[in-house]
TrEMBL record:
InterPro entries: 4-carb_acid_sugar_kinase_N, 4-carb_acid_sugar_kinase_N_sf, NBD_C, NBD_C_sf. Belongs to the four-carbon acid sugar kinase family. It holds the Pfam family NBD_C. SUPFAM superfamilies: YgbK-like. This is Uncharacterized conserved protein YgbK, DUF1537 family. It comes from the Bacteria.
Length: 435
């Protein structure tokens, strides 16, 4: 179905964007992730791409700022004339009416681009996320699957705790009309019948629909139906990387090269040491830090960054650079349980500043940033033009390559990791130069 080329996705943060980047690249699509839609249009390479991603920081913003950021992108997005625009959100849907509002983003994109039809895909089985009868479930680090409001991490998220598991109610609280449920039992009839069911549910197109996704085999029918209705009228689709997985499973995205699970990749440029900056305070990342042998460690007390933040960030970055210059891999991380007087946005901005200053030194062979907000702000602070996929590391944590005008940054291996993503030995492997 060539009408969906290029596949266009706009992500609410950089870690999630890199997951979709990897999903599409593994499927054989030529894809780049840009920091700005206008930058994508300026890059002549976009004309040869099968898929284009735009990464934003809307996940950490209040509704007014979300609307402003998406308004800035709208003209360039419209010029790409997508039949289907994927607004990529975290697979856990963690958001609220005041922070990272999915409802505010969907309304803004729909109004500015004239997309009156909205489909939401719940669940991403490849990451242990499942949606049944509208309710979201997620696998935790202990291997057990929890309803999202009872999840040991997401139910207690420090910024956007998931107090409601029913995604219909969760999104309605953010200002969307309550979505109509598309249950898994309908998928047995096939994509064509499902597309007709969608047309009937939409009616005038003003009420969203929510797809249950309980297993990987559900995705082909979902993707086929989405592609069919997008051919008839442009569509806004909200969901995690399972939206791209669904369209790939249905054969709705035309690949320009063989599908691949990775291959030869540069893990560390010129054999230089690895630099990890963790702004995440999640239990998953904490275990990865504990398991990371072979690093020089710099614990960061968040309270240290309250006063004279710029000077203190500079001092920490300078110390990291000294250790890297000695040929030692460095792991700088926030202490997980420490109290502090900074807002989460200011704390992420401070840690992002440290990551950017160290990366610009050219001393690190690999840059790893943990934490969604920190990753988003670090990439913006670095001034990268785009990011491409190299290889798989762990689900939700691909190894990427930075592209920039600055030669110290251009070609730098890069990992942007959400707090909940990656196996326990992720940092240790990267420190050893292994995938």
């Amino acid at each position: 179905m060539p009408g969906l080329r290029p596949y266009l996705f706009c992500a609410d943060d950089f870690t999630g964007a890199s997951d979709t980047l990897g999903t599409l690249a593994r499927g054989g699509l030529a894809v780049r992730l840009y920091l700005d839609a206008a930058e994508a249009l300026r890059d002549s390479a976009h004309l040869t791409l099968d898929a284009i991603g735009i990464a934003t920081a809307t996940r950490s913003l209040p509704p007014e700022a979300i609307q402003a950021e998406l308004a800035h992108l709208a003209d360039a997005l419209a010029r790409m004339q997508p039949r289907l625009l994927h607004y990529k959100v975290c697979s856990t849907f963690d958001s609220s009416p005041t922070v990272g509002s999915i409802g505010a983003a969907a309304r803004s994109l729909g109004e500015r681009l004239g997309l009156t039809r909205l489909a939401v895909v719940g669940g991403q089985p490849s990451l242990g996320r499942y949606c049944h009868y509208g309710n979201l479930f997620a696998r935790a680090a202990d291997g057990a699957v929890y309803r999202i409001d009872r999840h040991p991490v997401m139910g207690r998220h420090p910024v956007t705790p998931m107090a409601e598991a029913d995604l219909r109610l969760h999104l309605a609280a953010q200002g969307l009309p309550q979505p109509q449920l598309v249950e898994r039992g309908l998928y047995r009839a096939g994509a064509a019948a499902l597309a007709e069911r969608l047309e009937a549910l939409w009616g005038d197109g003003r009420q969203p629909v929510l797809f249950d996704v309980g297993e990987q085999d559900d995705l082909a029918a979902v993707g086929g139906a989405l592609a069919a209705v997008a051919e008839r009228a442009p569509l806004l689709c909200v969901g995690p990387s399972s939206v791209a997985e669904a369209l790939l499973a249905a054969g709705a995205l035309r690949a320009s090269r063989p599908a691949s699970g990775g291959g030869a990749a540069v893990v560390a440029r010129d054999g230089r040491p690895c630099f990890v900056l963790s702004g995440s305070r999640s239990a998953v990342t904490e275990r990865q830090i504990e398991a990371a042998g072979g690093f020089a460690r710099l614990p960061i007390e968040p309270g240290e960054l309250v006063h004279d933040t710029r000077r203190r960030c500079g001092e920490i970055a300078a110390r990291c650079a000294e250790l890297l210059a000695e040929g030692r891999s460095v792991l700088a991380h926030l202490l997980p349980g420490a109290e502090h007087g900074l807002s989460n946005v200011k704390l992420a901005a401070a840690t992002a500043t440290i990551a950017a200053e160290v990366a610009r030194s050219g001393l690190a062979g690999t840059l790893v940033v943990a934490g969604g907000d920190t990753s988003s702000m670090a990439v913006r602070a670095l001034g990268l033009t785009s990011i491409s996929f190299q290889a798989d590391l762990d689900p939700g944590a691909p190894l990427c390559l930075a592209h920039a005008a600055d030669p110290q940054l251009d070609g730098l291996p890069l990992v942007l990791k959400g707090g909940q993503m990656g196996r326990e030995d992720l940092f240790r492997r990267l420190g050893q130069g292994r995938i």
